[in-house]
Amino acid sequence: MASGDDDDPIIEEIDVYLAKSLADKLYLFQYPVRPSTMTYDDVDHLAAKIKPKQQRVELEMAINAMSPNYCRSKGEQIALNVDGTGYDETNTYSAKLMDKQTFSSIQATTNTSRYAAAVFRKGELHITPLTGILQLRPSFSYLDKADSKTREREAANEGGDSSQDEAEEEAKAITVRFARPESEQARQRRIQSYEFLQKKQAEEPWVHLHYHGVKDSRSEHERQYLFCQSADASENSELVKTPKEYLSMLMPPLAEEKVVKPVGPSNVLSMAQLRTLPLGEQVKTLMKNVKVMPFANLMGLLASGTDSVSVLRCIQQVALLVQGNWVVKSDVLYPKNTCSAHSGVPAEVLCRGRDFVMWRFTLERSVMRKEIASIIKLPPEDVKEFLEHVAAPRINRGWEFLLPTDVDFINKHPDVTHRQHMLWVGIQSKLEKVFNFCKEDFMPKSAPQPEPVHVSGEQRLQRAQERARETQSSLQKELDARRAGADRQDEPMDASSVPNGCVNGYPSATSPGFDHANGTAPSQELQDFVTKTFQKHFVMTLNELKRLLNLHMASMPAGQAAFHSVSDHMLQDTILLCHCRQILVPFPAQSTAARDEQKVFGLWETGQNFDKYRRLLFDMFLKNYRLRRSTIQTKLAEELGEVPKADIDRLLSECCKSHAGMWYLKGTIQS
Questions:
Q1: Per the database record, which ranges form the DNA-directed RNA polymerase III subunit RPC5 C-terminal domain (predicted)?
Q2: Which of 320, 449, 508, 513 has its CA 20 to 30 A from that of 421?
Q3: What would the mean pLDDT of 280-305 be, rounded to a whole number?
């Protein structure tokens, strides 16, 4: 030890003093967006304020508008955007020029117990603990003010536009309910929420300060408080410690850490710990962690000799059967009175959305994420979590179910499979009411595809030649008919010569004027498709019908297409033949809808008594492209007497869509 002391001699001893005069008021300001050589000491400080509890500071500094580097036109434009053309005491820039900027602070660290400011003078070191370390950056709150001004102007302009069909909303009965007492758990969630913290921060008032420059006499006076005011070292009790106390401060004794063993299923359990739980808890824990599992794998994870009947009874309480595999129930993953870790959506809403995803996988192997999200309308993070539980992404195929169909289990346990099927039927009926869909909307995708037929090149050539000979005569007749039609195009139409059997001015298939020889009659298959489609949707645009027709043709097996090519004119003729009529909706002049989107057709006649309601509604939409519910209800009452509310609800749901308090025919809402 003696030799070590000789090699490292003490050169100088420095007395250290603890200054406490500014211990609760000393802040360190940092300007990270500016180099240390470019200080703000010579810049005019116009205003300063602080929130002491939050340690939040704002400084207003002047901008040298006379500098050659200052763009005056930009400064005037920013001031105009923020304050407008008028003058007000609340204006940010009173000189109509951006001549100042605001700096706002954030805490660089929340724990400043290890930081202090030190001053060395006359062989003495005086240190003062720091209250806070703040980083000041330019604030762009004036841009938010400019945006709010722009929105106010736009709202004022929109408010000035009046429409003849905008009437006051009808009076509605209001049900008064008293809020339930807030639980302790809900109170804790509310206190920890971002909205609550923002509200608490806004409640603390600003304390306005007066700024003194570096060379100001007041600043010189305050700097003297950085030195210890008492010359007696005994008063600095923090720096007077015995060697033993000082050593214990440098190296505190180690505290024995208590090892907390996992006690709940949410922790990672070893197989030995898992098997100490009851059978039901074992199955629930495994399914909650694995999410989806074949029954054979589950039996392999349980202790040997476990009764499979008991396991089947337990797993049906915590899981559902999807493609022969067991998937954990949604209410097990999202218990009641909980919410999403991503978005805060309540557990009840999450369970409905996840049940829809699982139900879709009972119909097909793959689903599209966008389609799922458009129906359940949950945040993307939650939808992705649902899919990751049971599926994996595949290129150009969406999300595919994780496991192959367990045919062995389905064949071995038909009673369980049937019971699970009935459960899914009940879940499906609930989901249809919640999300407003039909199972048939998803069925074409799962239609079985026929086995591919291999045809040689010679066979293809021979078939093409035969097809050309067969169609040559019909093509020639069609050409002759078109030429004849062109000759008669300039002749005026006599309304009295329209034959019987015409629908909306177009000849029907049974009318005597209809030319079957020229092949202009729409096929029966096309008429059947149009009829079924309108009986399901009631109102459609030509663009939407073409889309559904293309989907229908694409879903048909190869080589079995009932119609090869359908022109727009033929499709419109077919619509009119199927007891439908075109509704000439008066779209607004600024409408961006395409021509096919402005051609709206509605089902006119079905042979039911409800047709009269639908016809009257279509007549109303000939005068206006949007209506209020009260207007529709009043018109129905005037023309047809008192109409039950259920019939009005059915009429609107079949033919219309609601947006911003107005009702539009399907497909006519302007984006």
A1: 444-671
A2: 449
A3: 88
